[in-house]
Amino acid sequence: MTNATPNGGTITASEPLAVDPEKVLQTLTKAWQQRATVGGGDAIVRAATLNLLIFSQDPNVSQLIDDVLSEIVEKHPLRAITVIAQPKAPESAMRAWTQVHTTALNGGVRQLCCEQVTIDARGDAVDGLEGAVLPLIDPELPVYLWWRGDPPFEGSFFERLVGSSDYMIFDSADFREPDEDLAWVGHLVKDQPFDIAYSDVNWARLTPWQALTAQFFDGLEFRPCLDAISDVRIEYVDDNFGSRVSAQAWLLLGWLASRLGWRPVSAPASGEDGVVTVRLQRGENPITVTLQRESVEGDAFHGVIALQMVSTGQTSANFRVEYLGDSQCARTIVRQEGAPSIERVVNMDEPSEAFLIGREFESPGRDALYADALRAAVAISMFGQ
Amino acid sequence: MTTAPTLPTVSAEQVNPLRHGLQIERTPEPCIMIIAGATGDLSHRKLMPSIFNLAQSRLLPGGFTVVGMARTKMSDDAFRDSVKASLKEQGYDTTTPVWESFANGLYYFDADYQDAQRWADLGEKLKTLDEARGTGGNHLFYLAVPPSAFPTIVQGIASSNLGRDANDPLQGLSPTEAHGWVRIIIEKPFGRDLTSARALQREVTNAFREDQVYRIDHYLGKETVQNMLVFRFANLLFEPVWNRRYVDHVQITVAESLGLEGRGAYYEEAGALRDMIQSHVMQVLSIAAMEPPATFKANEVRDETAKVMRAIRPFTPDTIPANAVRGQYGKGWIGGQRVPGYREEEGCKPDSNTETYAAMKFLIDNWRWAGVPFYVRSGKRLARRLSEVAIQFRELPHLLFEQGPTDRVEVNSLVLRIQPDEGISMRFEAKLPGPQMSLRPVRMDFRYGTSFGSQGVDGYQRLILDCMLGDASLFPRYDWVDASWTLFMPILDTWSQTRPGNFPNYEAGTWGPAESAALLERDGHRWRRI
Asked: Residue B378: which of B386, B369, B370 has the closest Cα?
């Protein structure tokens, strides 16, 4: 299968080849050697910058992973090891497949940019995953564990995988109990029982929101307004999990609170029409936060759709970022009494899963900003509990 | 009773607390960019696309404003339409809300650059826009005009005090008094010789401090040029061999297959030495040869590149013939098409002695590079477009493996390719499979377009953003420019005083004159096949 890449090149993926789980590495080496001799002996280049371990219990995840890999391997050559574990399956079996992805370089040379291994374990065979997976890791390269599942993240297999990894990627958008699950992740990030860096894809989705919000205050003119914020409104769309506030909305509020020194003074109060109100304080200045669940028809977009901050007193102003869904753009507006409003429209494409995963590879290391935002989000959402 | 802790006020902070720790490309403070020469080719073909790319990538600040400036009388709307048409012609989508929003920040101001009143009027316009657009007095001037207009514009800015900013000691203002920053980007060439460069510098310093001046060389915005710094100073592997002990010689090539593309009149006055070698090529050489700076701060990097320029052995009239070669292309073939010779190009004199090719050998008299020749070549209408830095390592001290009658193995080489296909490749020896100990050279490639997928941003885009952010690392400082002109003046003087005699001396579509090959052959080297 051949896919066009954003740079006008092509990525060609071989057909999956079923192999004995014990012979995966030999099969991959053979695949490279075979390609090196095809086409008149032009040495094919093999490049890899990281290991990507993907864990899921969902057997239908393969297509998503194929899509993600086909998009990211040109930019991030890697060895991908996908583990699909179904411990409750009636049969006990472990199967493995290998695939290689290549891209064309100039001069007819091809670069092997992804070695993909898929291991499917069912029933009791799940217990043998550790021995099958860990030897496949390229020891020279960093290991990213992309864990597709809900907290609590636990169990001996999880612990062994995490213990062999440098980074763990998860997506809090999938959390079914956002408050409690964020608290669980907060414990992992704070206490570091596994001594690795954690990345939340849902946090990465907030990047444009953070950038656009921060831009209001890059100039000295509006920076004093940050001292006098009195009202915040976060609007979000999330019809997945009943009346709970989405993890993304909590994280956005957590980011603001951690950066601006806001502390909760009361527990979140649920009102009608999906409104949750939170009372915070900065020093002695009260701040009222409204978390408003909105519904949109048709499209399955989930996430924050607007952030508004109002400052009062001498530096009275209204700052708003709002997502314009139809055009995949956002509008930023500053309103001040007696002055013309300042508006602009910027791109805000909904990033693909592959883009977000690839972005995690580009910003390695522990994200102190996330840790602070998460801690603040948990402190606010769990206040009084 | 407990009292709430006293929190520092945000307004007292020098940095935006919401900016702290964000893993995104930095965004500049809101500002106004004043483009002198806004109706010209450079503005339409390079600047506006670069700025619009920044807007599309969300890298421009809120309130960002462009004031296009030129002699032509035109309304704001007409200017917007002209930018729109130009972007559309270059394949940009101008039907989006992002374009509409960007266009709202485009303004036009017609001016005779010699009219002091118009500069004062511009000052008033900027004040009005600062208030309306929230740009806080941050102004970036971009001189997208022919070099001959640089002094007039700089004088105009000086006459109206538009170059003064909050950091100017004469203003007596602190940065928090929100009078913002003022910077200026000046296109190359900065002068056409040492005398004119110094004269221009005098004009510039009448209006600006050195830290406000950004002399743009778009070559320095290229990913590979920046990657040279990372490659050298972020890897322990290469720096230990980056010296006279292991490097035999260095070759820098900046080759163009294009001719003059309508720039005949300009090129007649410039030539390859001024157009390419004195600026682009020497910047690349400086970065390849510099010592590691203590930090990546702009002035520390620029201190080191300037030291390289000062360490290059000066030319004298006696040493020039053996170390510098010039050439001019005659008619020939490029890509299967017959092309005219230089003297037949529009705007060129039929008996022109302007060089379209220059090659030379430099020696850097310092501890690291003593005795290592740096060969550079640049020309027009060469066989292909290619720019690279090639580090040729020394021969092995002892040959362990028999290689048949020659008993020779290829030396290692490391090539930093600037364009096209930005990337790095290394050649080393490997054993051919089989019972015999046969060696063959293998090339290992790292290419931006494939290893990292994306090609990185355009040089102009990178540099404009850096300037808005106040990062001058990739902009030549005046002491570098002065050192460069000082180095080249003996050659320029000698060449202007002596007729080459054999022009044209290379055919279009070849790799330059025979004398260029002889320059290396005298040292037992040859130009790389590229």
From this structure: B386
- CA B283/CA B278 separation, integer angstroms: 8
How would you classify the pairing of strands A143-148 and A45-46? Answer: unpaired
Please indicate whether residue B280 is annotated as part of the active site. Answer: yes
How far is Cα B108 from Cα B115, in angstroms, rounded to an integer? 17
CA-closest candidate to residue B57, choices B475, B474, B458: B458
Least Cα separation, residue A340 to chain B (angstroms): 7
Same domain flag for B292 and B360? yes
Query: How far is A190 from chain B, CA to nearest CA, in Å?
Result: 18
Cβ B98–A208 below 8 Å, yes or no? Answer: no
Number of structural domains in chain B: 2
Q: Are residues B192 and B75 in the same domain?
A: yes
User: Chain A contacts of B429, Cβ < 8 Å?
Assistant: none
Residue B32: give its domain's CATH number. 3.40.50.720
Q: Check CB contact under 8 Å for B28 and A218.
A: yes
Q: Which domain holds residue B60?
A: 12-215
Select from B138, B451, B455 the Cβ nearest to the Cβ of A47: B451
Element (H, E) at B525: none
CA dist list (Å): A358 to A71, B116, B316:
9, 53, 55
B169 and B310: one domain? no
Is B396 in a helix, a strand, or coil?
coil
The two structure tokens encoding residue B135: 């740009």
Taking CA atoms, B525 is separated from B245, B251, B366, B407, in Å, by: 17, 10, 22, 18
B18 and B86 inside one domain: yes
Q: Which of B22, B24, B97 sits opposite A324 (nearest CB)?
A: B97
C-alpha distances in Å from residue A145, one per residue of A169, B424, B496:
6, 30, 66
Of B17, B57, B132, the CB nearest to A260: B17
The verdict on residue B5 lying in a domain is no
Residue of A nearest to B61 (CA): A215
**Same-domain status, B270 and B193:** no
Q: What CATH number matches the domain at A207-381, 3.30.565, 3.30.360, 3.40.50, 2.60.40?
A: 3.30.360
What 3-state DSSP class applies to A85? strand
Domain ranges of chain A: 2-141, 207-381
Identify whether B447 is part of a domain. Answer: no
C-beta atoms of A214 and B16 within 8 A: yes
In angstroms, what separates the C-alpha of B514 from chain A's closest C-alpha?
29
CB contact, 8 Å: B429 with chain A?
Answer: no
Q: Do B299 and B387 belong to one domain?
A: yes
pTM of the predicted structure, to 2 decimals: 0.78
CA dist B70 and B351 (Å) reads: 35
Residues B104 and B201 occupy one common structural domain: yes
**By three-state DSSP, how is residue B408 classified?**
coil
Rounded Cα distance, A289 and A291, in Å: 6
Q: How far is B324 from chain A (nearest CA, A)?
A: 34
The packing angle between helices A247-260 and A368-381, to 10°, is: 110
Residue type, A113: C
Backbone angles phi, psi at B133, to 5 degrees: -110, 0
Interface of B with A in 439-458 (CB under 8 A): 442, 444-445, 447, 449-455
Asked if B281 and B389 sit in the same domain, the reply is yes
Residue B273 CA to residue A368 CA, distance in Å, equals: 50
ipTM: 0.84
3-state SS, residue A71: helix
Q: How high is the mean pLDDT in each 10-residue block of chain B (530 residues)?
A: 46 72 79 95 91 91 93 95 95 92 96 93 94 89 90 92 78 52 90 93 91 87 78 86 95 91 84 92 94 87 94 96 95 86 92 95 97 96 90 85 60 84 76 68 62 57 90 90 96 93 91 93 88
The SS3 of residue B212 is helix
Judge contact between B509 and B334, C-beta under 8 A.
yes
Structure tokens at B150: 């640089």
